[in-house]
Amino acid sequence: MKRNIFILVFLLLCGLSVFAQKLSIRDSGEMIAYNGEGKYSIIIIVANDTYKLTFSTSQDGPDGSLIESEGQVVTGNQIAYTLTFESEASYGSTLKIECPGYNLLDLPIRLSPNQAIKYYVEDPEDPETKECSEKHWLIGEKYYLASNYVRAKDAYEESLNCWSLSSKIRKDEIEKRIADVDLILHYMKESANINLNYRELYTNYAAIVELNEYDVNAKKKRDEYGEAYANQCTSLKTIATTLLMEKKDVEKATTALNKYIEGGCGEIDWATSKLEEVKRWKKQFSRHTLTYEYAKEASLGLSTGNYNVGRSSGYFTLRMDPDIFKAFRMEDADTLQAEVNVSFGFTIPLFSHDLKSSSNVGLWLFLGPGMTMLTKIGEKYVTAPGDDGDQMPIENTERYKYHFAASPEAGLLFKIPIPGSQHHQIALRYTFQYRYAFKKEDVDLIGKTSNVFGIGFTF
């Protein structure tokens, strides 16, 4: 009878050992920084806080491999054990992990100095832990499909924090989802930058839709910015094409083509070739112009200035009567009248055209302020009554007289090709000048208007 009872107890104990729950251990794969002074290493064991784990090695003690089991850190339903080892003594030994009601775990120790390894001890078949991971995973999926990315990430991280996962595949799946959420949040933050153009915004939202095809708002934004981007490219091409046909604004044509290229619009080769065409066309006009200026009052004059195709520039003109030189070098000269005129202002392009067969033609408006000075030299001597009553010659103290007028002006400059030249033109210039004498008595002397004609060339 006693023998039979012993056999039954033995069989019962064997059955319990056979059907005891089984723990498993897995490497977390995390990189952990640790300074072991070139001598020590650590192993971190993470498990459910309901497991009562104990650790031992074949050589415990100050001269063995396991130096100490440091403090336990509890986070949620997890508990982390930190075990410190003397690297050389522990290498090749075995860490034994025991838990009541579970199988014994043997972990081979292969530690190098300053190395830290983290392991998870878990029961993959534990319904409670499987439910924890799966529950938060499903919550994360719900928020992800609803495009609530912040809450989705929180739920995925909660799923990872459950002390056990049903499989490595699910762990990889959750980590992939977290990486996708981080990328989406990055694109959303970047898209809030007001300096982004339509192309960059379209690219960002298209990337979000690629990661989450159920994001309705991202799809809407992608389509809106995609349409705006396409319209912008079309508009830039239309503007550039029109300006190229008219050939009247080099700067605007260049700007439109550069924006087309920088925006990544479709026909980059077309835009690049047209940009080269604009550069060649721009070179066909020599902008600097020098003309000889003639007016009845001042027959000797020069005007110099820049007459650009695409933008305004400036000019300067000096005209004078050749008699002014006589006044400077001949003190005895009598009754001379010489005019000096200075003016400056802006040149404004009105029209330009490529003749193709030779060079280009163009028309510019110019206008600006000016100043006129009239120098009048009278007789050196005048007569005055002497002591004896006779008329005696005396030096004329008012011999030199100066008269001034403000002289605003406006005019046109026309460039025509020089036969046989592809880059230079003949310049014809006409100026109308209105004069405001500073003194009323000088109006008739200086005159109210003046017409000036000029001819020169560009270079």
Q: Can you describe what's shown?
A:
With 459 residues, the chain is α+β, with helices and mostly antiparallel strands. It is built from eleven helices and 21 strands. It has an eight-stranded antiparallel β-barrel. A five-stranded mixed beta sheet has the order 1-8-2-5-4. Strand 12 and strand 13 form a beta hairpin. Helix 5 packs antiparallel against helix 6, helix 6 runs antiparallel to helix 7 and helix 7 packs antiparallel against helix 8. About 2% of the residues have low confidence.
Kindly, what is the distance between the CA atoms of the first and last residues, rounded to a whole number of angstroms?
Answer: 129 Å
* E-strand count: 21
Question: Beta-strand level of the residues, as a percent range?
Answer: 25-35%
Q: Give the rounded overall mean pLDDT.
A: 81
| Most strands sheet | 8 strands, antiparallel, barrel
Percentage of residues assigned to helices = 25-40%
Quick one: overall form?
elongated
User: In DSSP terms, counting alpha (H) and pi (I) runs of 4 or more, how many helices?
Assistant: 11
- Overall structural class, as computed from helix and strand content, comes to alpha+beta
Strand order of the largest sheet: 9-10-11-12-13-18-19-21
Rg over CA atoms? 48 Å
Contiguous runs where pLDDT drops below 50 for at least 5 residues: 9-19
